[in-house]
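To make this tangible, we now present a fold written out as tokens:
***
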Amino acid sequence: MEFTYQDYLESAEALRNRIGSFSPQVMLILGTGLGALGDQLEDPIVVPYSEIPHFCCSTTPGHAGRLVFGSLEGKPVAVMQGRVHYYEGFSFQQVGYAVRVLHLLGASKLVVTNAAGCINTDWNAGDVMLITDHIKLALESPLRGTNIPEFGTRFPDSTTLYTPRLQEIARSAAEQLGLTLREGVYMFFPGPQYETPAEIRAARILGADAAGMSTAPEVLVAHHCGMEVLGFTMLCNMAAGILPEPLDEWEVLKAADAGKEHFTALVRSCLRQM
């Protein structure tokens, strides 16, 4: 499915009719089990995805499927409580659609979070990782098809997808909170099956520290739009083959819930310093 610039404008206009003159500076995408941050906004305006033209509705457990506009740490923000994924049957263009719409409404920064499996055997489940780069070997791209020059160039550079300036803010915030912040490379897998032990061993050889089924498409779209990007991973389980037990989505949700307090504190502290 290929969207036109007019499609994005229609979605932005529909949201403008709901939020009035409010203009978000920061867009937050909250991953599996991490949507509670969206409930902390002041003066919230809630818009279900189902009420926005051309938006897709999330079907994944732990994803509320709605946009929340409001103030957080003094910043006007738009929060995606839940995202859509490639494994749900959506195209990469559909997965990244909301990013372009929020950019049209004023968002110049993206804070993206996810819950993922830990590949790095020196780390532990429950750790938080600052994403410094990602690996996406899946052939399709969210930028595939006709380029829309209003958003960006045909062949965007990917040297710094994750903004160094925002990474420095994250390091400072973690230090102030006394939080150990891992730093590493996130590897995108299309899912919905969890990775095999052999795939995890290959990912480790390639330099990946975490494995997940989201984030990379949205980040590519945001970077194409010229947005600054900050990414965090909640390492909810050790990846396949590291421990003897099988992987389970409810364990991921349980782990994300257990770590959400310090995770949300970190994100809020970063927002204060942006």
